[in-house]
Specification:
The chain is 2% helix and 20% strand. The chain is mostly beta strands. The radius of gyration is 21 Å and the shape is elongated. The two termini are 30 Å apart.
């Protein structure tokens, strides 16, 4: 009879999204709503979802500056949402530190918010300098790295509230401390000034939504920025998850957009005295998913 299924025939009914807002993708098991900017997530019925919310990464310091800390990451495994609109705010990355000796700290990343939860912006990278003018890394989702010094010990790294701490600035190497990543603290400038790694726990989400930093097929979020180097030591490497590498006789590198990555610190050329600025952190992101 027309309209009835024959025995053994599977009814493949097309699945439709149960909410609006963001860029919608699916993998046959879940629907994903990705927000790379402000918007509204609206369930069409009462809905249980899980999500990751990431803030903007910290801006880095200049002049042997510390790397910016990664934006804070909030994960909710089971949120019950009513059929109404939920505002989404995606934080931007912190501002770049200047190339002005003694006044070169970056800016803290901006918070991201959703469903009454807040991901804290990444801590700023402290500015480096000469004659003891270096600045500490700022507190944030992950802490920013401290500025590098001429000798002794550089400035302290910041503390992470939803991630890891930033590294202390270097003295003998004249390298800024690395910014903290979501899972790994930033390295001290006297060691390497490397930014801390973020997280690959949501790699499968990144594959479906084409977001996060792709590292050999694995997607990472919320990496810390590397410290800026002086001539006595190389600049810090970027943390996996969108962190920017520190500059060596060059400006720092920006954090990757929509990863919450911290920026890499700017350098100082010890031979010529040239000063280089830091860079801006990467913006945040929200990914909401639910069963298809």
């Amino acid at each position: 009879m027309i309209g009835n299924l024959l025995p053994g025939v599977i009814d493949f009914k097309p699945r439709v999204a149960l909410a609006t807002g963001g860029t919608i993708t699916n993998d046959g098991t879940h629907f994903y709503h990705t927000f790379t900017g402000n918007g509204t997530f609206t369930p069409l019925q009462s809905l249980t979802v899980e999500y990751i919310l990431i803030a903007g990464g910290g801006g880095s310091g200049g002049v042997r500056g510390g790397g910016g800390g990664a934006g804070g990451l909030v994960y909710n495994s089971s949120a019950s949402l009513a059929a109404t609109g939920f505002a989404v705010t995606i934080g931007g990355g912190g501002a770049a530190g200047s190339n002005v000796d003694g006044s070169a700290s970056g800016g803290i990343g901006t918070n991201s918010t959703f469903n009454s939860q807040t991901a804290n912006g990444g801590g700023l990278g402290g500015g480096g300098g000469t004659s003891g003018q270096q600045d500490p890394g700022g507190n944030g989702g992950s802490g920013g790295g401290g500025g590098g010094a001429d000798s002794g010990t550089g400035a302290a790294g910041g503390t992470g509230s939803q991630g890891s701490n930033g590294g202390v600035g270097g003295g003998t190497t004249r390298t800024g401390g690395g910014g903290g990543g979501n899972t790994v603290a930033g390295a001290a400038g006297n060691t390497s000034g490397n930014g801390g790694n973020g997280t690959d726990s949501y790699s499968s989400w990144g594959v479906v939504t084409s977001t996060g930093q792709d590292v050999s097929g694995t997607r990472w979020y919320a990496g810390g920025g590397g410290g800026g180097g002086g001539n006595a030591g190389v600049a810090g490497t970027a943390g996996n998850g969108g962190g920017g590498a520190g500059g060596y006789q060059a400006a720092g590198n920006v954090g990757t957009v929509n990863t919450g990555g911290g920026a890499g610190g700017g350098a100082r050329n010890e031979s010529t005295g040239a000063l280089f600025a830091g860079a801006a952190g990467g913006s945040g992101i929200l990914i909401v998913r639910y069963l298809a």
